[in-house]
Amino acid sequence: MKQILIISGKGGTGKTSLTAAITRLYDDIVVADCDVDAPDLHILLKPDIKERSVFKGGKLADIDPEKCTECGKCTEVCQFGAITEDFTVKKFSCEGCGVCVWNCPFDAITMYQKESGEYYISEIENGIMLHALLNPGEENSGKLVTGVKQKALTFAEKRNVEFMLIDGPPGIGCPVISSLSGVDLAVIVTEPTKSGIHDLERVLKAANHFGVQSKVVINKSDLNPENTEKIKGYLDKEDIEVLAEIPFSSRFIEALKQAKTIVDFTPDGIESQCIREIKSKLDKLI
Amino acid sequence: MKKIAVASGKGGTGKTTVSLLLTLIASKKYKVQLVDCDVENPNCHIFLGSFPIKKEKIGVFYPVINLEKCSFCKKCQEVCEYNCLLVLDDNVLFFPELCHPCKGCLFVCPEGAIDEGKREVGDICWFRESDNIYFNYAVMDVGEARANPLIEELKKNLENDVDLIIFDSPPGANCPMVQAVNDSDYVILVTEPTPFGLYDLKIAWSVVNKLGIPAGIVINRDEGEDKIITDFSSQENIPVILKIPFSLEFARLYSEGVIKADFFPDIEEKMFNIIESI
Amino acid sequence: MKIAVTSTGGSLNAQVAPNFGRCAYFIIVNSEDMKFEPISNPGTGMMGGAGPAAARLINDRDCKVLLTGSVGPNAQSALKQFDIEVVTGVSGTVKEAVDNYLETQK
Fold first, then answer.
1. Measured between alpha carbons, how far is C78 from C59 in angstroms, rounded to an integer?
2. A185 CB near a chain B CB, below 8 Å?
3. Out of 3.40.50.300, 3.40.50.150, 1.50.10.10, 3.30.70.20, which CATH number does the structure's domain A65-107 have?
4. pLDDT above 70 covers what percent of chain B?
5. CB-based contact (8 Å) between B175 and chain C?
6. Nearest to residue C13, comparing CAs of C102, C106, C98?
7. Which among A19, B163, B220, C28 could bridge B14 via Cys, Cβ 3.0 to 4.6 Å?
């Protein structure tokens, strides 16, 4: 079984549309949506939720006003400015380190584990989908990403599927690092814009840093052919394979507006041919 | 001084575009500072040919263990919620990327065997684009996990003599986004008229609403037939303050790293209305 | 000798868990008499660094070998410090994993 992560660095390059379309081409697959703060894959794959579980994320400090003498020790030791002037805890700032608990002379502070989101085990037409939703504003999305991937892996092994696809988060920080861990290949979706190239280089470095091999899809490739050539030249130098170039097409947006994947919306279109080309290249990994 | 954050749940909806348009237009009347808070993948600098003023490294605390003084009592290991210290019989391992620099180990060590070290996690840069535009961005080193120290550093470096500060927020709706929009006077939520755009707009709005900051919606790549975003806007009573039409020509310019403030002539007045209504 | 196996359940017939730090259980098997002890992994609830913490846990239980699907880089360096032999890419049931491992040692 191969774990394939689809990421992009820059948001909005078409990660989710691509993940959904590739998913549709398999008879049996396990797919995980690891973009847990803004998960969109369910819009296209329409999973039927079979099981929901609460995700216990980070810890939070809680000050007991009965015991608190307002001595100010906690404010002094807290590195995250999470304690207000009137000695309550700012939920969005507290990182749950517990330094205030250890240093409070009056044992007035305790830590509790908060419910930070939910994750779901769902059925899709051709397999299993794992997804989650982080409560808005929470930290620790990396941990939720790990949880979703772990569940997905268990299903992937049980069902004996050839591929597990992971729709990754944007950026290069904590949730991306968690998504990269243990995958066999990162498929990076980019676009021929200066911002796209800038972010592609950073996400490639991140994948490389964590020892993950990468291949690239250039989406909206004819938007700026010169930049597309630049990307290809750069990837050639780095010895990274281009899986496909998908031309700019308003049909992706039209399909999305109907909540359909591109391969369902226009099965014979050039866009769908590109998706099948990617699939056949991925199949060679097995 | 007014502070406006430009945010969106979904990536790639046009936060940077809106931040830059707002900056360029506002600077016709006001002194503006643009702060790119998307430290994982900052993009604003690609579009500004700014004059660089200075660049500094951003460092965060890390424990330097003095093995001569260490009694291997494991107190530091016990206090660390992130398991970034591993005390062996005659050595202490430190895992830098797990560390949230809480200094718990430093405070708890009974031997005084921990010194404060500084570990570099990225850079912060200052630019002057024109008389009326200050611009800052920070960029996180590849391999680092936490964006927060960099956003914090950006927020420590706000100009005093400007009329308007614009924060280009990172995508998503978790801690870095909260940190970027927190303490602004107004949030512009940028979205696109698709089901993805709507779903992520709802998530971003719930964060902004929780923080108690007023917000308005910008619909980017509008093709004049949107219903889903406007429906949500009237349901939740958040105004749609601007629609930016879809334009392939604009997208091509964007791909070259070019943003023209006067490309869409009728948005200037609306942008000033937004600024002046805050 | 004690062998730690990451597992999705609390018995010898449970599946080997694919990850180390955040697996549900560790099954600690004594290779002499095949007696086992399941330990629920506290790492599933940790805020970070579950890998190094798990390495510490199995070291505290005197395990000399770890059988699992995969191990992260931090856990890897911790396990190395503890001199624990690491076998990755393991799947199937816990019992099969231990049997296969012992077979290779003959």
1. 10
2. no
3. 3.30.70.20
4. 100
5. no
6. C98
7. B220
